[in-house]
Structures are given as C-alpha cells and as structure tokens.
Specification:
By secondary structure, the chain is of the alpha/beta class. It contains eleven helices and 13 strands.
Length: 302
C-alpha cells in the first residue's frame, strides 16, 4: 500500500522570536525559497504525492495560499491544524483518518536534508512498509537532540530525548518512517514531564517490539535543523553557496514534479508564469529551455 506523507509545520517557533511572532518559522525564507519547500521536496522526490500539512490555527491560511491544494504539481495537499503544540507524536493521532491503513512518513517542517547518499537511503527506506525507520546523524552537541544508543554490535539499545549524558553523538533527525500501526501506538503514549507526546516514546514503542531500524547518515548527507537564528543563517548560507557554485537550485517543487513526470511541459510553463519575474522563475524557465534541447538535469540536484 502506498505511503502517505505528513509535514508537521506547527509550534510557536519561540526559539526564533521575535521574527516568528507574526509568521510561522516554516514560512521563513531559507535563501531563495520558503522553509517548507525543503521537507516538501524530500517527500516529492520519494514519489509521495499525497501529503497532509499540519499547521497552527493562525498560520493555516498562509500555508494554503502558498501551496494551495497541490494540483498545480499534480499532487494532493490537505491541511489540518494542531490547536496546541502538544508533541511531535500528536501528528500521527491528528493524521489518523488521513492515513487510514497506509504506512506513513513524518517530516518536520524545519528540517533540511540534502545529498545523493541521503536520496538513495530514503528511497530504499520508502520501499519497506514494515516497522519504523529513523535516521541518526553525527553532531557535536547531541545533548540538544533525541539521541540513539548502540551496543558493541551497533544494535539499537536506547533512545533518549535531550540526555545530560548522551549514549552516542548520533542525533535523531526529523524524518520518521512508520507502518500502519503508528497512529494506534501514538494514542497509547502518555504525556512526558513537559506535557508532550514525545516522538521518542513512539519510536521506543517500535524498538521494544523489535521493529525499529536506524539508518546512520554520513558525509554524503547534509542535515540541518533550522530552528534557531544561527541554524537558519547556516542553512541559508549552505543553499546559497551550493546553488551559486553549481548553477542549479535545489528543492524546487516545480522542478521535482516535472522530473517525476507528474506535470508536462505545458503545465510547467503555466506554473512558471506567476514566478517568471523572479530569479527563481528564471531558473525554471531554463529547465524548459534544456528540455527543448534534450538536456536532462541530474536527479540529485532537484
């Protein structure tokens, strides 16, 4: 059964105040495009064309104005509000009707993933519909994240949220693959001491069942959590340098939809029309020119 996607773009963005007092952090720019384009692109590149976007009540209209219903990219986007930021695992409960019996992939709206190594791992993971898969990424400050611990044979033996004494330097990223039991398991989680349904507890449920897989991301992958001012700047600089040096733009939904075969040349032309006065739109016009010349863009640069 085909996997459905969830983008969690809720929360109050308090770590980014005052700039997020009036606008969702997931609508903030990361160099040349809204932050939410980056997690959206991750799902689209895996071929996931049915996605639920979970937002705060006061930001929902802005997300719908930006993304609409997805039909311009020949995909389906629907929306749901999270009244209060009561934990990441709550997203699976809110999405229960949307998911039905489908497996799911949940991605946080402020996470940026890039790299050929990541793309291949994500595609492989998407093809497996059993159990749960999370991703570990080496960081210098694991105490600020959920952390995965291993035994000497690299078997997962612990998952802890922001531990004082981390069991490893592998942070758990904001990308989670689940089978069709995720909503049921999430409903059984008790709120943590801070009153939230922790995603770590949901992942620990799968671990206790022997159904949790952890993929470790290495040097061929870049992962950025853009939840702080410094991280937001770092992400913008990363995208700027990459795009300017290589002459391409990354994580453009219009380009991915076209490369996926979801939209044709004429549909791409229509999508570009309101964007053509911007550098972003000019880049998309060049894709049309390359198509007319029979040139193809490398898939890892989408």
């Amino acid at each position: 059964m085909k996997r459905k996607g969830i983008i969690l773009a809720g929360g109050n963005g308090t770590r980014l105040h005052p700039i997020t007092i009036s606008v969702s952090k997931q609508l903030m720019p990361v160099y040349d495009k809204p932050m939410i384009y980056y997690p959206l692109s991750v799902l689209m590149k895996m071929g996931i064309d049915e996605i639920l976007v979970i937002t705060t009540p006061h930001d929902s209209a802005a997300f719908q104005k930006l993304l609409e219903d997805g039909s311009k990219w020949n995909m389906s986007l629907s929306y749901m509000v999270q009244a209060n930021p009561d934990g990441l695992a709550q997203a699976l409960i809110l999405a229960e009707e949307f998911l039905g019996d489908h497996p799911s992939v949940l991605i946080l709206g402020d996470n940026l993933f890039f790299g050929e190594g990541f793309d291949s791992i994500a595609m492989k993971t998407n093809s497996c519909k059993d159990g749960a898969t999370i991703f570990g990424y080496p960081v210098h400050n694991p105490e600020d994240y959920g952390v995965v611990g291993f035994d000497k044979n690299r078997n997962v033996i612990s998952l802890k949220e922001k531990p004082n004494f981390p069991a490893s330097n592998y942070a758990i990223t904001g990308l989670y693959f689940y089978d069709n039991r995720a909503s049921m398991f999430a409903r059984k989680i008790c709120p943590s001491a801070r009153g939230e349904l922790e995603i770590t507890d949901l992942n620990r449920t799968y671990m206790d069942c022997g159904d949790l897989n952890v993929e470790l991301l290495g040097r061929s992958t870049t992962w950025l959590d853009t939840g702080t001012h410094r991280a937001l700047l770092r992400a913008a600089n990363f995208v700027s340098i990459l795009e300017e040096q290589q002459g391409v733009r990354i994580c453009c939904p219009e380009e991915i939809a076209f490369c996926n075969g979801w939209i044709n040349v004429e549909q791409l032309r229509n999508v570009i029309e309101p964007l053509k006065k911007s550098e972003y739109g000019q880049y998309l016009l060049k894709i049309l020119e390359r198509e007319n010349k029979g040139l193809k863009l490398s898939s890892n640069m989408q």
